[in-house]
Amino acid sequence: MREISETLRSTFRRALGLENRRTNVRPGRLDHIEQFESAILGNIRDVVVYLPAGYDEHPERRYPVLYMHDGQNLFEPDRAFVPGNHWRLGEAADQAIGNRTAEPMIIVGVDNAGEARIDEYTPTHDPEKRAGGRAAEYARMMIEELKPLIDARYRTLHDASHTAAGGSSLGGLNSLYLVLHHPEVFSRAAAMSPSIWWHRRVILKDLQTFAGRQPRLWVDIGGREGSEALEGARALRDALRARGWANGETAYHEDRRGDHSERAWAARSRPMLEFLFPPVQL
């Protein structure tokens, strides 16, 4: 498996000032879909959509799409779970796109539904946790209700090869679920600090039975997230290698000093975007 050497190399080049970066990176803009109602889940949530710089000036262009969970924590500091502690994902996308280290993309931040989050993000009901098991319904909401709305309202590339899912913690677990159970919709995924531990690592069984085309997959974990989280991520890494997913379509990264926080995920968000959406080679 490629250990994201190319992505890290570009990161170090930026840190050393070796990258030929633009002095003024144009920002994208945020659009809001308030009170999005799901008949499948029976609840309401807000959705924030990041549109890259140039979206309004080039009406002929269409873009790949990344659907991100826990949308409250991504773009706006005042809406984050811990106010002021957000991913700065818009800024990360601006930098990657502006410096041409990533293809311009649309990012759809899907708010979690509060107390329903654990149930909606997990694939099975865990008797020990007394929770979970609505990931299949959540996937239906994404595919049957939200994605058609996004595709109708924005200039997206509709097909699976240009559609990704991403998230952290239980959101990372859900992203794995989406790409393994619905490869006809999602062909790329970011599983950041994924909760592999859920229900005795049940997601690894899904990987073993997966019969679709290999997705483009980013997996990471922090060294300060605890032994259970770290061992789970490494078990996923080993399972991916056992399947032969050892080429440039899979990236695994351990952030030695990373903890389980929005700040840590923010620090890894730009290389994640650069890996999922590498610049188009003309």
Walk me through what this model shows:
This protein has about 280 residues and is an alpha/beta fold. The chain has a single domain, classed as Rossmann fold, CATH 3.40.50.1820. The chain is about 35% helix and about 20% strand. The chain has 8 helices and 8 strands; from the N terminus they run αβββαβααβαβαβαβα. It has helices spanning about 5-15, 90-100, 115-120, 135-155, 170-180, 200-210, 225-240, 260-275; strands spanning about 30-40, 45-50, 65-70, 105-110, 165-170, 190, 215-220, 250-255. The longest helix has 19 residues, at about 135-155. The relative contact order is 0.16.
Summarize the amount of helix as a percent range.
25-40%
Query: What's the total count of β strands?
Result: 8
Task: Identify the CATH class.
Answer: Alpha Beta
Averaged pLDDT, please?
A: 93
Order of helices and strands: HEEEHEHHEHEHEHEH
Q: What is the radius of gyration?
A: 18 Å
Assembly annotation: single chain
- Can you name the CATH architecture? 3-Layer(aba) Sandwich
Measured distance between first and last alpha carbons: 26 Å
Structure, briefly:
The chain is of the alpha/beta class. 35% of the residues lie in helices and 18% in strands. The chain has helices spanning 5-15, 89-98, 117-121, 135-153, 170-181, 198-209, 227-242, 262-276; strands at residues 29-38, 43-51, 65-68, 106-110, 163-168, 188-192, 216-222, 250-255.
Question: What are the key terms here?
Answer:
alpha/beta; 8 helices; globular; single chain; 282 residues; Rossmann fold; 35% helix; eight-stranded mixed beta sheet
